[in-house]
Write a structure and sequence with these properties.
Blueprint: E1 11-19, E2 22-29, E3 34-38, E4 41-45, E5 50-56, E6 59-67, E7 77-78, E8 81-90, H1 93-109, E9 115-120, H2 129-143, E10 147-152, H3 158-165, E11 173-178, H4 180-191, H5 196-199, E12 204-208, H6 214-220, H7 229-238, E13 241-251, E14 254-258, E15 261-265, H8 266-273, H9 283-294, E16 299-307, E17 316-317, E18 348-351, E19 356-360, E20 382-387, H10 392-401, E21 413-428, E22 437-440, E23 443-447, E24 465-477
Parallel strand pairs: 9-10, 9-11, 11-12
Antiparallel strand pairs: 1-2, 1-8, 2-3, 3-4, 5-6, 6-8, 7-8, 13-14, 13-24, 15-19, 15-22, 16-18, 16-21, 17-18, 19-20, 20-21, 21-24, 22-23
Helix pairs in contact: 2-7, 3-4, 8-9, 9-10
The structure holds adenosine-5'-triphosphate (ATP).
Adenosine-5'-triphosphate binds at residues 121-125, 153-158, 178-182, 185, 210-213, 442-443.
């Protein structure tokens, strides 16, 4: 074993090897870096970790991740990371065996996933999920020796159907190469299982390939990583996880489990009605958003909420007639929602007309929409963003502020955290015959009279619905 300079991280192994034909001490540190000396200069690689290694003849080839330097790197540019192979030649068979044992030990100690079930939604976003998976995701998983079982989704709710009955014990995690829609299906599928408690511990990884990608943006942005397929894949390979609040939306005995958001009014109308511009990718939200502001709608109705500590001054005190039917259910059939006794809570209310009512679980609603800047993944609360009335010009400027989350500072916006919520949606104020859309996680939850595609069936009716949150119920792969 060779000696290490004092400030270096502790070494797992340090031995003389051949690097580029020159004998030098090579050190593998506990942090997974490889250090050696070349032409009198100390060099380091694998700053972002080791993916795997192979023995080729006398050589050991280590597949590493390094910081992107802007230049060309073998393996190609991959977001803030680059893949780079590092070759070295141990000086004896014994030394090679020792190196391989230590590299194995190091990789095994990292707790990385070994087998993943991967959904690829060829329909999401700009329909490029298949290409993203083959070109950017699969090669990295292969380099990391992660076994994959790949399933393309063939129709809506296909992912949910599979997840409901799959043998979860065979996998370390589920990956969605998609937008947020498939993630929501996976969470709902897991929660509908009789063994939901165990199933929900299975981490879910997201690779951005939809038009919104709010969940993965919320995970990557706070740690300064770009919302790219590569950053997302590497986060999954590293295997760190975090828990995520799940909101139960119920109407009678019908339930939907939401992880991203619920919208009614302007945001829902833009999200759902802009579907016809799907070919534009995420630009569809801006283009149709402008159109919706010019012909602004307002809706009658009422919202009731249980404010989080510190937000008790919002709204007026109210009595909430909680829908008790929603508690009924056979526990053996799956998750039934939080045990919270909603009738015992201190409810408050706001009455319409409303331009927009928006509940958010995580900060980003889409890659360019910081909907709820203070939202936390597992604080047990939902962020509520309400707009009752707003001049059109101010509203246009507010839409541009969605990029950095400063819209919540507007005097036209109420921004608070809630523990539970009830929506009583009403008709449009300009035309009582027309009602709105209730959107949760990008899917239509309810369509009112004469709303967009109102002839198509939705899970719930355009009536009162209630929402409560279970803290940290689901598990996500996360960069930290
Ligand atoms: N083969 C398919 N054909 C049609 N729809 C599909 C198919 N596979 C999945 N879907 C449905 O596509 C919908 C949208 O998927 P996804 O969330 O991946 O993309 P997106 O809507 O573009 O992105 P985001 O949800 O982030 O805005 C989901 O509801 C899913 O059920």
């Amino acid at each position: 074993m060779d000696r290490q300079p004092e400030n270096d991280p502790p070494a797992i192994i340090s031995y003389r090897v051949l690097v580029n034909g020159v004998v030098t001490p090579l050190t593998l540190t506990v942090e997974g870096e490889l250090r050696w000396t070349e032409s009198g200069r100390r060099k380091t690689t694998a700053k972002k970790g080791i993916l795997s290694f192979v023995v080729e003849g006398n050589k050991v080839r280590v597949k590493t991740l390094v910081e992107r330097e802007g230049g060309i790197c073998c393996g190609g540019n991959v977001g803030d990371y680059a893949r780079k192979d590092f070759d070295f030649e141990p000086l004896s068979d014994e030394s090679r065996k020792l190196w391989c044992d230590k590299l194995h030990e190091h990789l095994d100690s990292l707790g990385r996933p070994k087998k993943l079930f991967v959904f690829v939604n060829p329909f999401g976003g700009k329909k490029s999920a298949r290409k993203i998976f083959v070109e950017e995701v699969k090669p990295l998983f292969e380099d990391a020796n992660i076994q994959l079982e790949i399933q393309e989704t063939k129709y809506q709710l296909h992912a949910k159907e599979i997840v409901r009955s799959m043998d979860v014990s065979k996998y370390d995690g589920i990956v969605c190469v998609s937008g947020d829609g498939v993630l929501v299906e996976v969470v709902n599928g897991l929660l509908e299982r009789a063994d939901w408690r165990t199933a929900l511990k299975l981490p879910i990884g997201m690779i951005p390939a939809g038009s919104g990608n709010g969940m993965i943006k919320s995970l990557l942005e706070p740690v300064g990583l770009p919302c790219s397929a590569t950053s997302a894949t590497i986060s999954i390979i590293r295997g760190s996880t975090r828990s995520l609040d799940v909101a139960t939306i119920s109407q009678g005995t019908t339930k939907f489990f939401s992880v991203l958001m619920l919208a009614w009014g302007l945001v829902a109308d833009i999200d759902i009605e802009s579907e016809k511009f799907r070919w534009m990718g995420s630009a569809r939200f801006d283009v149709y958003g402008l159109q919706r502001i010019i012909c602004l709608r307002q809706y009658n109705g009422r919202i009731l909420f249980v404010p989080a500590p510190g937000f008790e001054s919002y709204g007026q005190p109210a009595i909430c007639n909680v829908d008790k039917e929603s508690y009924v259910g056979d526990k053996a059939l799956g998750y039934q929602g939080p045990d919270t006794k909603l009738e015992d809570l201190d409810w408050r209310e706001m009455k319409g007309p409303f331009v927009s009512v928006w509940l958010h679980n995580v900060p980003w609603g889409a890659e360019n929409t910081l909907a709820a800047p203070d939202a936390k993944f597992s604080d047990g609360f939902l962020d509520l963003i309400v707009m009752k009335d707003c001049p059109k010009l101010a509203l246009m400027s507010l839409m541009t502020k969605l990029n950095d989350g400063t819209h919540v500072q507007s005097p036209y916006v109420s921004y608070l955290k809630v523990k539970a919520f009830v929506l009583e949606p009403g008709a449009r104020i300009d035309d009582q015959d027309k009602e709105g859309i209730i959107d949760s996680d990008g899917e239509v939850l309810a369509r009112g009279k004469r709303s967009y595609k109102c002839d198509q069936k939705a899970l719930m009716s355009y009536n009162k619905l209630q929402i409560s949150v279970d803290q940290g119920l689901a598990t996500l792969y996360s960069p930290e």
